[in-house]
Amino acid sequence: MKFLSKLIILLSIFILNGCSKNDKEISLIKEINQEDEMIQAYKEGVKALDENDTFFAAKKFLEAELLYPQSEWASKSSLMASYAYYIESNYSEALYNLERFLKTYPKDPRMDYVHYLIGLSYYENIEGEKKDIKPLIEAKNKFKFVIQNYPNTDFALDSKFKIDLINDVLASKEMYLGRHYIKKEKWVAAINRFKIVLNDYDTTIYTEEAIHRLVEIHYKIGLEGEAKKYASLLGYNYLSSEWYKKTYSILNKEYKTIKVENEKKSLKEKFKKLF
Predict the structure, then answer these.
(1) How many CB atoms are closer than 10 A to CB 251?
(2) CB 197 within 8 A of CB 210
(3) What is the DSSP string of 9-42?
(4) Which of 203, 142, 196 is nearest to 173 (CA)?
(5) How far is CA 103 from the centre of its chain?
(6) Quick check: 226 and 219 in contact, CB under 8 A?
(7) Which residues does 205 contact at the CB level (< 8 Å), separation at least 6?
(8) Where are the alpha helices (DSSP H) in 51-133?
(9) d(Cα 101, Cα 80) in Å, to the nearest integer?
(10) Most buried among 93, 168, 201, 248, by the most CB within 10 A?
């Protein structure tokens, strides 16, 4: 009886070992097949990207990631999908996938590029001075992050350049609103907008005009002391500027009206002046 029991136990061990070995072999075969399918999907994604079929490329890269998520190729496939969406100008999908990447692959060595691509995806949403500036703020914050955390990379260098361009757009937004308030004779609101340009975007191309507008408005509402203060600031920093010449003319003759620059006159108005 004992002999029979031992025999049954021994046979069970052999059977279990055999099953375990077979399971491992089957698992290995499946893994190899998954890897082959993943590589094939990735190659198809690269080919589609080369052919500018960015939508199909993104689809194949995501497919490659899902086929073999434990592979080191998974993170690369995910990043390539984000890049394909970016090239396609599908910035919302690019951002969604990049944010997912940050959570799924937090230790990936390409984080500098990931954060930079997030910044670019926000940056490409620039629509002009009349549009929503929220994407620009997001882009600026992300580029600052790249500069602070990856200072010695090419991404940091380009991020600095992008921030300068963003500041120009943000300043143009404030200038647009300031000129609008001048037309509406809302002097305090206009002053506040031009001060934002002077304080926050003083390295942009709009600084000279912003100071001139502050001279112009303060003179108009009877605050000549403030007008002269800003005129001195403009003269000290931009003495050869066309805006300083206009400011000088305000303080040296009777000044009655405020004219907003950059308003195009019609050909008909110009023609009338000839007679």
Answers:
(1) 13
(2) yes
(3) HHHHHHHHHHHHHHHHHHHHHHHHHHHHHHHHHH
(4) 196
(5) 19
(6) no
(7) 168, 171
(8) 54-67, 73-87, 91-104, 111-123
(9) 11
(10) 201
Residue 127 CA to residue 86 CA, distance in Å, equals: 17
Q: Which candidate, 190, 169, 159, places its Cα nearest to that of 125? A: 169
* pLDDT tens digits in sequence order for the chain, 275 residues long: 544 444 444 444 444 455 444 444 434 334 457 788 888 988 998 999 899 999 999 999 999 988 888 788 899 999 999 999 999 999 999 999 999 999 999 999 999 999 999 999 999 876 544 567 888 999 999 999 999 999 999 999 999 999 999 999 999 999 999 999 999 999 999 999 999 999 999 999 999 999 999 999 999 999 999 999 999 999 899 888 889 888 888 877 654 545 555 444 443 443 334 33
Distance CA 18, CA 207 (A): 80
Angstrom distance (rounded) from CA 99 to CA 215: 46
Q: Which amino acid belongs to residue 82?
A: S
CB atoms under 10 Å from CB of 68, counted, come to 21
- CB of 168 closer than 8 Å to CB of 138: no
Contact (CB, 8 A) for 116 and 154 = no
Tell me, yes or no, if the pTM score tops 0.85.
no
Would you call 235 helix, strand, or coil by DSSP? Answer: helix
Extract the tokens encoding 245.
């010449």
CA 141 to centroid of chain Cα atoms = 8
100: amino acid identity, one letter = R
1 burial (CB, 10 Å; 0-12 / 13-18 / 19+) is: exposed
Q: In angstroms, rounded to a whole number, what is the distance separating the alpha carbons of residues 48 and 54? A: 7
Closest CA to 79 of 102, 52, 56: 102
Question: What is the phi/psi pair of residue 98, to 5°?
Answer: -70, -40
